[in-house]
């Protein structure tokens, strides 16, 4: 596993495409993972049917992915009580939990510190209607900020462009302070919306159905990356 974000202080905006295995065929995960060799990361959505209304999978399925790839495995915990469960995923490359699932920003910073001490990158995620303003003075405490561009819980939703204001605010603060914190976006991402997100300052593009629902998943990954690079 990797122990540092791609890039570093002052390195500026990155372009990383992270196909979400939530949109893959669960009966053939190894096959579908192999179908996206151009991916930079693989995104693993864990849902508990409490924090979000859907149930996906937990640690056993996530762990089953590990022997089949050497890519950065990016876990997104859409679960209640992440303080209890997040550290179980510390063997993955990055673990992101939701700001809305903890009691306070102080609790989020404490959990992020625990994850980092366990050897993984720590991410914080916000739903479309949650502001990022409280995070702006504490971005150094997180390795990535995941901005949801749909309501979390289901794939295939339409991209909400109004969240890009949060991306711009994050990009400005990260660049101003010379931080390595990455900005990730998840929800309704394809080539067109990746271009919009890139122009706002996103580093990591999570794409599910637009990749694994495409006739050629790897070509879809490359199209997303190309659109993002051209829009930066």
From TrEMBL:
PROSITE patterns: RIBUL_P_3_EPIMER_1 (PS01085), RIBUL_P_3_EPIMER_2 (PS01086). GO terms for molecular function: D-ribulose-phosphate 3-epimerase activity; metal ion binding. The keyword Manganese applies. The active site is at residues 45, 186. It catalyses: D-ribulose 5-phosphate = D-xylulose 5-phosphate. A divalent metal cation binds at residues 43, 45, 76, 186. Keywords: Carbohydrate metabolism, Cobalt, Isomerase, Manganese, Metal-binding, Zinc. Catalyzes the reversible epimerization of D-ribulose 5-phosphate to D-xylulose 5-phosphate. PANTHER family: RIBULOSE-5-PHOSPHATE-3-EPIMERASE (PTHR11749). NCBIfam families: PRK05581.1-4, rpe. This is Ribulose-phosphate 3-epimerase. It comes from Corynebacterium heidelbergense.
